[in-house]
Amino acid sequence: MKIPDIELKNKSTESLGAYNEYITDIIHEILIVDSEYIQSIVLYGGICRDNKIINAWSDIDLFIFYNDIWRSNSLIIGNVIAKFEYVYKIRLDVTRVNIVDLNPNLLSEYNNSTVIGILSNRGSNYRILYGSLPVIEIGKDIDIKVAYRTTLNIEENFRNILIDHDFKSLSYNDKKKIIERVIRWINTYLRNALIICGQYTDPYEQLANIIENYYDLDVGLLYKMCYIRKNYEDYIPTSKLIDQVNQIFSIVKPQIKKKYETIK
User: Fold this and answer.
1) Judging by beta carbons within 10 Å of its beta carbon (0-12, 13-18, 19+), is residue 204 exposed, middle or buried?
2) pLDDT tens digits for range 113-172
């Protein structure tokens, strides 16, 4: 089996540094142990979108599309992920997708708008590293339904964070992890809020620039989170940011629901 060289869009070797080697090694290892049922492997997220790697923030996000996920060996894949995270000290976020679940009759109940965006060939923040994507026709109504379901899931995840953790009593490292997760969530949340309005954008700066054209909220916090993300290595976490994000959810949630009810 020939495994292609990996060259990422809009990235110079200098800006990627060792990540290019990491990704190549990871893909090779995954294909060695579980290639029989894999149709494609896709790299997505900030590593494709940003101009350069952001220390202490950038991770490696992969989708693995399976022809038959139930016949693959999830335990072996889990071991590969754990091994590379331990060796390279980089977070590896792998989402395994069963192509059967992408049946047009089931898509309206799907929960991952990023998968839908990639299958719709929307945006440039992804790269097919191996194989080819399944060809699936996705209508605008599906796009909107999945975006709305994604916002509901993120709202629940954030509520669980508030319920399960007393932020002030956490260790410094745990506070950092939660802040990172919350920043990623709120940006994904608002990006999907824009999809409901028919607007497609990448998170962070681009999102902050246009969100107030569609939703009534103060974008100052979004620009602040852009700054935190770029300087995450030196950022000192505070509970104030959690409170401010909670306010965004409270303000935007009814607006999203109203727009969705109007559109559907």
Assistant:
1) buried
2) 888 888 877 666 788 888 888 777 777 888 888 899 999 999 999 999 888 888 888 899
